[in-house]
Hints:
Layout: H1 2-36, H2 39-42, H3 45-59, H4 71-77, H5 85-96, H6 99-104, H7 106-116, E1 130-136, H8 144-152, E2 158-162, H9 169-176, E3 182-186, E4 189-193, E5 197-202, E6 212-219, E7 222-230, E8 235-237, E9 241-243, H10 245-259, E10 266-271, H11 282-285, E11 289-290, H12 291-295, E12 313-318, E13 321-327, E14 338-343
Parallel strand pairs: 1-2, 7-10
Antiparallel strand pairs: 1-14, 2-4, 3-4, 5-6, 6-7, 8-9, 10-12, 11-12, 13-14
Helix pairs in contact: 3-5, 3-7, 8-9
Domain Endonuclease/exonuclease/phosphatase: 133-335
Organism: Streptomyces daghestanicus
Transmembrane segments: 40-58, 78-95, 102-120
Amino acid sequence: MAQQALAETDDGGAETGRRETRLRRLLDRAARGRRGDRRIWRRGVVTAVVAVLLAGVLAGHAHIPNAVGNLGSLTETFLPWSGLLIPVLLLIALVRRSATALLALVLPVTVWSGLFGGLLTTKSGGGGDLTVATHNVNADNADPAGTARAVAASGADVVALEELKASAVPTYEKALDRVYGHHAVVGTVGLWSRYPMSDVRAVDIRLGWKRAMRATVATPEGRVAFYVAHLPSVRVKLEAGFTARQRDRSADALGEAIKGEALDRVVLLGDLNGTLNDRALNAVSSQLRSTQGAAGDGFGFSWPASFPMARIDQILVRGVEPEGSWTLPATGSDHLPVAARVKVDTSAS
């Protein structure tokens, strides 16, 4: 019996030893294979080149010329979406087992994170003493009354509306005047306020018709100059590229008007038909801060409402402090309304 038990024990130990030996051989073979696979650096060169080019576009977008089809502005309009190419390239690099491609991907990841990484987090605070909102209501909106009620329900103290059809203005007035005691409509844009308004006038943005206005709003914390603007639309055409010449001229004119503003506190509300990455809006964006960029919740894309891809509806400020910025639920328009909370009284800041 003792001999039999000893034999069984010896057989078990031998079997265990054989399994350990086989496992060790497999691991050694795999390690040698990885060390000896020189193709790991040769594979995925095309993927690596694409990654480097992507990093170059992200870092040097300002140098992409607008001479042909406004290619630079078109690229800048949708620049954040270029980040979607990164996980695609990562998957290809992993499937190809390419160390070269994986190393090259560090470049676009670093540049994209530097440009847009801050927008992935919520920066909204709990402060502020004035809430503002803006909405391109769409001239073809089938439910203007419902749209007006939705915007008023946001709790905004001052509301700007763009693309107001003349026949729909009475509907908006009837719905909003219940909440806002003061309002003015100039051409196709309007401003509604809980607080008194004065010095209302059109702003010439070189269109030949009125799509921009200015008013002074006497808030409890002081006077604020409010600008409302709807810059011309842009189009992407096969034969002409990104057509934005009229929009660019109007942006320059709006920038000149804001530059000459006498009041220190300025809020610009409106549909600028461009993102703040677009160099064509520099005449405006160089003077003002984006509430979304400073204190926003995510990217704040506002258009198109069915699948927002770009923030072309803007709230920009000077002399007041952004405390929060967000998009509102969809209405009957093809744009989402956007809102922000700002601090007008910055004396204690």
